[in-house]
Amino acid sequence: MEDAFLSRSSRIADDPLSDVLSLLKPRGYQSGGIDAGGDWSFEFPKSNGFFCLALVSGCCWLSVDGVDEPVLLQAGEFAVLPHGPAFRMASDLAVAPVDIFSLRAEKLNGKILTWQGGGACLGLSAVFTFAGEHANILSEVLPTLIHIRNPADRAVLQWYLERMMAVLRNPQPGGVLQGEYLAQMMLIEVLRLHMTDKMTGGVGWLFALANKQLSAAIAAMHERPGHRWTVRELAERAGMSRSAFALRFKEQVGTSVMEYLIRWRMLLAAERLRNSSDAVSSIALSLGYESESAFGFAFKREMGCSPRQYCRARASASKTSVSSEPTSMTPSEPAVETLPPQAALQTS
Questions:
Q1: Number of domains, the chain
Q2: Rounded Cα gap, residues 181 and 189, in angstroms
Q3: Residues linked to residue 52 through DSSP beta bridges, in sequence order
Q4: 226 and 167 co-located in one domain
Q5: What is the extent of the structural domain holding 217?
Q6: Quick check: is 5 in a domain?
Q7: What's the half-sphere exposure (Cβ side, CA atoms, 13 Å) at 257?
């Protein structure tokens, strides 16, 4: 079954960002929120999730492993941690931290926990995992911390924040799925804002999409990955000379034009090898390779193994894997849970 997120059948025009996210299959689930009062400090362990935080009210300090200085988050601001580092949130970093999992071992799943009466600071979070195995193509072009504080950017995300608050505060049938889709839409907005932020000076395919000329060339490669593209043809799509295009592409994307094309082809090939019964020869031909051997050489150079080895490894992994998806909140569970201020707790 085709992934529900960013269905390709509904696309009007080729869209490289949608292509990549469809390949990665992000699965957003609400981890809920914390309403804290008094002096407080929470410690979050390193994870494999893509963490998004929205501060609804109050302010707090955010200290992230790998980031030199802590940042002060104000009401209406957003923070994104693409690599899932360990971090602390606190009213005062001098306060001894409490391990968040000592409060509640299981996922919040849509709940808002109240700490020490609440009222001083309310934060909501959404955590993403990726069903696709090549999440690094996104994470490698993103920093450890994205802090969204520009008023115009905050206004873009405010609608999603208000809707997520409504879903959390007043659970309705279908609310779990609604919250998940809202979180996924917020993820796209965050990526759009970051790639167009000229202050980041980022290098990678994501930032190249903010350049209309380079974006046109990337879209052409995504639209027809099996075409025998030349640098000259793609330069024409970008409306640039061959030499200027090749140089600008390498500077902005970090790889040559042909290296990018080959990598995208191999990611598509890996997806088909994993999720279809198509023969290797058929995949090779559809991606512009006249011989299976030439395709196999390119695949091994990019993916580290032959196509058939890749298939066998993935088939073996799928038989032994155990699902780690979070359990959804049932309609009968309360949306707000109050915890006493002790570190080790019994939840009501």
A1: 2
A2: 13
A3: 80, 126
A4: no
A5: 211-320
A6: no
A7: 26
**Per-residue pLDDT band at 106 (split at 50, 70, 90):** low
Same domain, 275 and 155: no
**Do 164 and 17 belong to one domain?**
yes
Own/partner pairs, 159-167, CB within 8 angstroms, 24+ separation: 160/185, 160/186, 160/189, 161/54, 161/56, 161/124, 161/186, 164/30, 164/54, 164/124, 164/126, 165/56, 165/124, 167/30, 167/110
pLDDT tens figures, 26-74 = 876 656 788 999 999 999 999 888 898 999 999 999 999 999 999 999 9
Half-sphere exposure of 88 (CA within 13 A, CB side): 18
pLDDT of 110 above 80? no
Q: What is the pTM of this model?
A: 0.78
Residues 184 and 230 in one domain: no
CATH of the domain at 230: 1.10.10.60
Tens-digit pLDDT profile for residues 302-341: 999 999 999 887 766 665 554 444 333 223 333 444 444 4
Strands 112-115 and 336-339: parallel
